[in-house]
């Protein structure tokens, strides 16, 4: 089928806007391939340092520099469930590389923090900027010039975008992202949500809450709800940067191991010493970025990617904005309902047809660019080779066609019969700025909220007011000074149970904030990532208690219904001083240099473009 006209038009718009920056980027990676740092250009002293500690069976091959040496960049730590499985990966990957005459070395590690652990705590103010730190760490790892290909080991919220941003600055290297897979399903999500709300209402204690949470997050592997981590995996699949179907295979299984083996073998084939050279910077083009956005919208993925997609794109010289996402959302149907947008988790999604079915139905309906350069696909439409699901036949990895029809249409549907005709992520704008509204998780009768405002400077103040009964009414809760410059733009998950309780009591409730809500954005209507942020003159700094705000995903409106002359004459609220402790002061440079959320909320990319 021919490409959808809206998707085609948005892609053309991005290509035209990006023409000068993309051209400079492609010139950069071509120069790095031809004249940059590499094994054959290292001095003997430099080179000897690079293989001094290599295992004896690898040392001659690395020294000879005649076969691909794969640089492994790993986000392993054993405190986080998603990244704990990576502990043995480098050891295994070296064995897999030897099977095809290649070698592998751990180039470096990157931090991997868990928003689930830091949620609502001071550490969340480091979360978004950990992405820039990961990108910088990836660049340090790959800067040694010892590698002809790279394997990126990471899964969760900021880790995949950070790895990709860093690796794209070495875009001459063929690169595959190697996931670890989700943990098996635990406590049903609806039950978890019910218990959280009971705790918010004071009807159960901490021990009951902890028991439920421990039954939900119970073993190694990615959390199973469809948040930022699993949205990452979806996007890497539709961008063709995984081995096909690798995203949602559970850890510790033979199939998981064989997919990792296949990724290593494939890197040996597409490395720059081979005949099928596929550099990352060529794989990640404007069409692949549009595919990432389409996959996100079609599956109701994390709102964090309204920030991450522009940042990842900028690292490859591509410029995409929220207008593009909004236009794409108007053309892309919602075909998946995975918790918090549905009752089942990613394991249920996988069982219903998963990634293979999703890519195939989107391709069949002209909603993805099938002609992108992928790490594994062949022919004129390589992405079609990613519309398959992996399996084992007598312990041998094979790929099969996905099911012809969804095996659970409460979870996953064909694009011809979607849950809703649009992708569920809207741009709202007005005199309060521009923001993201995730409609896919919100009942349609709540897409428009008009109510008086109550203004807060942090989420703890909101919870105090909730517990005191001060929010028992129709209300738009404004939480400001939560943007990247103010405090690093933390997620505000702590608000979800309390606001959900108010909504369940029959009140018309909405949240407006320059902070984030992420993939756990739920049933309460919310305008998030408000830009420009309150700190530094954004209009949220003018809002006052009692002002009436209109938030409408139907009309794309985010406005304070205040007389224009009065609005312009108002003084801006004073921001609270930056908080200290938990390392937050170390990130002052990132906050000071951060650009707007719509551009990716990055100090690093902002500075990079000033010298590029």
From TrEMBL:
- PROSITE patterns assigned to the protein according to its UniProt record, in alphabetical order: ILVD_EDD_1, ILVD_EDD_2
Give the pathway annotation: Carbohydrate metabolism; Entner-Doudoroff pathway
Required co-factor?
Answer: [4Fe-4S] cluster
List the keywords (alphabetical): 4Fe-4S, Carbohydrate metabolism, Gluconate utilization, Iron, Iron-sulfur, Lyase, Metal-binding
| Source species, domain of life | Bacteria
Q: Which residues belong to any copy of the Dihydroxy-acid/6-phosphogluconate dehydratase C-terminal domain?
A: 411-601
Gene Ontology MF terms in the entry: 4 iron, 4 sulfur cluster binding; metal ion binding; phosphogluconate dehydratase activity
One Pfam family here: ILVD_EDD_N
Q: Write down the EC number.
A: 4.2.1.12
The cofactor note from the UniProt entry for this protein is:
Binds 1 [4Fe-4S] cluster.
State the GO CC annotations: cytosol
Q: Which residues bind [4Fe-4S] cluster?
A: 156, 223
One GO term of the biological process aspect: Entner-Doudoroff pathway through 6-phosphogluconate
Which residue numbers delimit the Dihydroxy-acid/6-phosphogluconate dehydratase N-terminal domain? 69-378
* Catalysis performed (reactions): 6-phospho-D-gluconate = 2-dehydro-3-deoxy-6-phospho-D-gluconate + H2O
Q: What does this protein do?
A: Catalyzes the dehydration of 6-phospho-D-gluconate to 2-dehydro-3-deoxy-6-phospho-D-gluconate.
Family to which this protein belongs = Belongs to the IlvD/Edd family.
This protein is called what?
Phosphogluconate dehydratase
């Amino acid at each position: 089928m021919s490409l959808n006209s809206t998707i085609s038009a948005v892609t053309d718009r991005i290509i035209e806007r990006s023409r000068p920056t993309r051209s400079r980027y492609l010139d950069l990676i071509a120069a790095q391939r031809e004249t940059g740092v590499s094994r054959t250009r290292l001095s003997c002293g430099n080179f000897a340092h690079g293989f001094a500690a290599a295992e004896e069976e690898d040392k001659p091959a690395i020294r000879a520099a005649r076969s691909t040496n794969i640089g492994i960049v790993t986000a392993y730590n054993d405190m986080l469930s998603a990244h704990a499985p990576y502990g043995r990966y480098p050891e295994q990957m070296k064995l897999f590389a030897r099977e095809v005459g290649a070698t592998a070395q751990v180039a470096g590690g990157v931090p991997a923090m868990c928003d689930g652990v830091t949620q609502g705590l001071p550490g969340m103010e480091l979360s978004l900027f950990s992405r820039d730190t990961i990108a910088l760490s990836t660049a340090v790892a790959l800067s040694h010039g010892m590698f002809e290909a790279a394997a990126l080991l990471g899964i969760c919220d900021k880790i995949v975008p950070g790895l990709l941003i860093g690796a794209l600055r070495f875009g001459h290297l063929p690169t595959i992202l190697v996931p670890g897979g989700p943990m098996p399903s635990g406590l049903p999500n609806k039950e978890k949500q019910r218990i959280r709300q009971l705790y918010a209402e004071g009807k159960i204690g901490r021990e009951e809450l902890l028991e439920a949470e421990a039954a939900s997050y119970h073993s190694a592997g990615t959390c199973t709800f469809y948040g930022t981590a699993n949205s990452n995996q979806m996007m890497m699949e539709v961008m063709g940067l995984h081995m096909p179907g690798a995203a949602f295979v559970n850890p510790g299984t033979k199939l998981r191991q064989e997919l990792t083996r296949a990724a290593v073998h494939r890197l040996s084939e597409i490395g720059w010493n081979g005949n099928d050279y596929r550099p990352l910077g060529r794989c990640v083009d404007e069409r692949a970025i549009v595919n990432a956005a389409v996959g996100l919208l079609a599956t109701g993925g994390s709102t964090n990617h309204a920030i991450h997609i522009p940042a990842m794109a900028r690292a490859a010289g591509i410029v995409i904005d929220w207008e593009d996402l909004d236009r794409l959302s108007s053309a892309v149907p919602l075909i998946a309902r995975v918790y918090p947008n549905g009752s089942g988790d990613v394991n249920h999604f996988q069982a219903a047809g998963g990634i293979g079915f999703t890519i195939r139905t989107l391709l069949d309906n002209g909603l993805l660019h099938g002609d992108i350069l992928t790490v594994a696909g062949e022919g004129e439409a390589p992405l079609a080779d990613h519309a398959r699901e992996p399996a084992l036949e007598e312990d041998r990895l094979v790929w099969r066609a996905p099911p012809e029809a969804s095996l659970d249409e409460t979870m996953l549907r064909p694009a011809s019969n979607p849950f809703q005709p649009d992708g569920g992520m809207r741009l709202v704008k007005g005199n309060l700025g521009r923001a993201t509204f995730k409609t896919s998780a919100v009942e349609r009768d709540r897409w428009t909220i008009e109510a008086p405002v109550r203004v807060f400077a942090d989420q703890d103040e909101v919870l105090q007011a909730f517990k005191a009964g001060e929010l028992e009414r129709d209300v738009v809760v404004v939480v400001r000074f939560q943007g990247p410059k103010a405090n690093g733009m933390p997620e505000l998950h702590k608000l979800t149970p309390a606001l959900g309780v108010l909504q369940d009591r029959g009140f018309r409730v909405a949240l407006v904030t320059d902070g984030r809500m992420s993939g756990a954005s739920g049933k309460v209507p919310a305008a998030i990532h408000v830009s420009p942020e309150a700190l530094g003159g954004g209009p949220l700094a003018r809002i006052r208690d009692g002002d009436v705000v209109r938030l409408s995903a139907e009309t794309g409106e985010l406005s304070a219904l205040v007389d224009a002359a009065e609005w312009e004459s108002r003084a801006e609220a004073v921001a609270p001083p930056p908080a200290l402790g938990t390392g937050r002061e170390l990130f002052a440079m990132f906050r000071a240099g951060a650009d707007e959320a719509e551009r990716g909320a990055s100090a690093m990319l902002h500075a990079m473009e000033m010298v590029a």
